[in-house]
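Lab manual, section 2.4: Encoding a predicted structure.

Procedure: take the sequence of the chain (307 residues), apply the prediction step described in section 2.3, and record the output as structure tokens. A sample record is shown.
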Amino acid sequence: MTQQPELFPISSPQGAEPSSSPQVTGSTTLIGVLPAFVSHLQERALAANTIRCFANDIELLARYLGQDTPVSHCSTAMLRSYLAHLEHQEKLSAKSLQRRTTTLKTLFGWLAEVAAIASDPAAALEQTPSPVRLPQVLTTAERDRLVAIAQELAQADPPDARPLLLVTLLLAAAITKTELLNIKLDDLYLEGAPAVVIQPASRGDHPRYLRLPDDAPAMIAGYLHQRQPREYLFECTGRNLEYVLDDLRKQAGITRRVGFRVLRWTSAVDSLRAGMDPETLRARLGLAEATWANRLPLLEQLANGPI
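Recorded output:
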């Protein structure tokens, strides 16, 4: 499938200078300001996917207010009208509305900072907090039962090593479903300290080199002998692996849903209980600092137990 070229590519050619902020003035349109704004976000070392979301949000704002609207003409009332349109006509969720508000505050705060506009019209916008929910995690007993069933399947006649490898990777590395499905055989390091490389999903992000349990090489060897994958470690669909997890859940007598996210956050809580430094855990999970600032207190509550 041919991809449509991006209007504002996220990555700049090596050696190229980013757009200079003074080129932006009050008469610059919302669309016209995007290249310099993207360069500003890149200088802040934001993730490529985050920058792309900011750019898309601004394009949507420009469509609502008009493609030729100068940034100096954007008032607080106009921005509030736009957010009200998103909430009531577009039926955006509280979380999505919060992100759009953050985009407006970031853009117009930067425009005021570089003196392109006299004052920040987004400063008075109220952030709509999204509902805060504790992540779903397994209890220690549930986790142990799940692993025990997977071990039984790996030693059965005939043996099935896939469930045990799946659960081990999710609990040991706390990776997402997409990251798991993208693991190639070349991403595995099984000599010395076992590890797996999680390749970045977006340009501008960095790969993560994650430690695996000491028994991972033997486990992986048994799985490779059975399944004989050619390129990717799991050459099946994510839905197929969800069925594997659901079958394990039922056999382990666990009533709640056990999916990729549940095992990812269970791994994170286990790491905090084991004394892992929060910054190390953030890097292991591959989360941005802003996301981690909201997520960490919830995981710490689960790790420390009810208050």
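Check your result against the sample. Residues 140-304 form a domain with the hpI Integrase; Chain A fold (CATH 1.10.443.10).
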